[in-house]
Each structure stands twice: as C-alpha cells, then as structure tokens.
C-alpha cells in the first residue's frame, strides 16, 4: 500500500473506529438486527428513522434516552437540524450523531449485567473490551514490538461524544482495519441470532 508522510504518526481516530467499537460489543454479546447494528456503527444524520432506531435500541435494554451520556447536539444533517429547531427543539442526546453507538453500548452493558451509569468510564468492563479490540485491530503490522506501540496506544482522551478515545498509529490502523473488512471476516466475529458472542 502506498504511504505518504510519516506512517508512524499517532492520531485520535474518533468516529472512524465506530465499526471496531461495534465489533467489540458484538463479541461481548450484543445481538441486534443488522439495521440497528449499522446505526451503532454510524455517525447518523439525526433523521426520524435514526431517532426511532435509537429508541428501539434503548428499549431492548428497558431504557429511554435519559440513560444516554453522550454530549447533546443538534442533528448532524443541516436540513434535519433546521427542521428540528423549527419544531421547537434544541440539542439533545438523542439527536447527537453518536447516540446509536451509545445506545448499543447500554444494551451491551445490560446483556452482561454491567453498570449502566458508568458505561463511559475507561475502566468500565465495556470500555476495556472496546480498548482490547481496538488494540487488536490497530496494532502495527510491520513487526513493531508491543513496547514500541504502547506509548501511543496508552494515551486516552475523551471523544466529542464523551466516549474514551485512544491515540493510535496510522500504519497499524490502516493494516489491521483492512483485514477486519476482508471477505468472511464478519461471519467469524458476529454470533448467530439468539446466541452469545465469544
């Protein structure tokens, strides 16, 4: 693969890691219809179909939008945001573009009996599972040792939505993410309907 600039540079992937975060949740037992899993992977526009999907996810855990801890925001799509404001609404957790991911995180916590109120804490079992999957899929593929990777991997900040965000290296993110999207990879990682993940 062609490289330009410094392939060892570190950065904060943010929303580009949503599919990887969702994979961690599936491995931890999240089992929802594909359309809801897609919502967990997405930076959604805030349309009614997206808001309804978030409500549906939350309902699977017996929750409502008050359980969400993401940052309130207007819908990401400007036209939808204008419509939302003209209807008399302001920024909400429901309309923020990461609410699908956060709702899926809550469902995953419910499935495992994990605490709901602290689901965004870096030391929470959910976030530890997410961090482990992120490390697995974004570790260097060029023979770099764990010791060489650790300084970048260990630096954690907070994403704009409130979720933990780890600094990663460009080369590792490129190589392992490409592998996770290869043909057949989803069948190895996603449990069959009605079953628990590994």
TrEMBL record:
<protein>
    <recommendedName>
        <fullName>Asparaginase</fullName>
    </recommendedName>
</protein>
<feature type="compositionally biased region" description="Basic residues">
    <location>
        <begin position="189"/>
        <end position="198"/>
    </location>
</feature>
<dbReference type="InterPro" id="IPR010349">
    <property type="entry name" value="Asparaginase_II"/>
</dbReference>
<feature type="region of interest" description="Disordered">
    <location>
        <begin position="144"/>
        <end position="198"/>
    </location>
</feature>
<feature type="compositionally biased region" description="Basic residues">
    <location>
        <begin position="166"/>
        <end position="177"/>
    </location>
</feature>
<dbReference type="Pfam" id="PF06089">
    <property type="entry name" value="Asparaginase_II"/>
</dbReference>
